[in-house]
Amino acid sequence: MERIAKSVSDFAQTYDVASAAVSGRPYRSPLESQPGLRRRARALWKSLVDPLAALILLVALAPLFALITLMVWRQSGAPIFCGQKRWGQGGQMFTCWKFRTMAPDADALLQDLLDSNPEARAEWARFAKLRIDPRVTAIGGLLRRTSLDELPQLWNVIRGDMALVGARPIALGEERRWGDQFRYYLQEKPGVTGPWQVTYRNSADYRRRLVLQRHYLNNWTPIMDMKCLLRTLTVPFERKNAY
After folding, report:
1. What is the H or E stretch that residue 161 is in?
2. Beta-bridge partners for 85
3. Pick from 53, 103, 109, 62: which is nearest to 82 by CA?
4. What's the pTM value of the predicted model, to 2 decimals?
5. pLDDT digit string (tens) for 112-131?
6. Following DSSP, what letter does each residue of 19-74 receive, concatenated?
7. Can you tell me the distance from the alpha carbon of 3 to that of 77, in angstroms, rounded to the nearest whole number?
8. What values do phi and psi take at 73, rounded to 5?
9. What is the CB neighbour count within 10 angstroms for residue 107?
10. Of all residues in the chain, what percent carry a pLDDT higher than 90?
11. How many other CB atoms sit within 10 Å of the CB of residue 59?
12. H/E run at residue 192
C-alpha cells in the first residue's frame, strides 16, 4: 500500500493534484460533481482539440521526422516505421505507429535471451520491457531513450485511434496483466503520453500504472492534459528510467 500511495503522490506532485491517498481528502475537479458532464467534456476535448494539435505538431516537426528517417535508413534500411496492433477505446484494435528501433530478427533475438537468461525473463514478465534489449539497434536505443520513436503516433491521434494524453497503448495479450481492471483502460483512447509515462517512464509496474490511470480518469481536466504535455517536453532530456 505504501508503494501505491507513493505512485499517486508522485502523480499528484507532477500535476499539482491532491488525492485522498496523499492528503486524506478527495480531489475535486471542476467537473467532479457531474460525472456525465465530465465524460462528455473529455470526449469533446479529445475528439476536437487533440487531432488539431497533433496536425500542427506533425507539420512543425517535419524536419525532425526527416532527420530520424535518414538515421534509421542509414543504419538498417527499410522499413522506417513499425506498425503494431494495440488495444483501443472500447476494445477496438488499431495499428500503432512508431519509428522502427529493432533489428529485423528481433523476435528470434528476444526468444533466445528469454530462454537462456532467467533474470531477463523475470524482468520481461514484470514490465514487458528489458533494460538491456538485444533487439534494439544503436539508433533505436537513442530514439527510445528520448521517446522520439513515438512521434509517428501523432498520425494515430489525427486518425482518431489515440489521444495526446492517456494510458500507454498495450498489445494483444498484455491485457491479462490488468486483470479485471482492464475495463479502466478501455474507457478512454490510449495516449501518446500520459500520467505514468512522464512520472515513471519504464520503471512502473502494472499495479502503479493502474493507480495512475484510474486517478487520471477520475480527476481529468483540460489543465491536467496540458500540464502532462508540457512535462513531456522535458522527457527527451532525462535519462532516468529511459531505455
Report:
1. none
2. 95
3. 103
4. 0.76
5. 888 888 888 888 887 777 87
6. -HHHHSS----TTTT-HHHHHHHHHHHHHHHHHHHHHHHHHHTHHHHHHHHHHHHH
7. 43
8. -60, -45
9. 11
10. 30
11. 9
12. strand 191-193
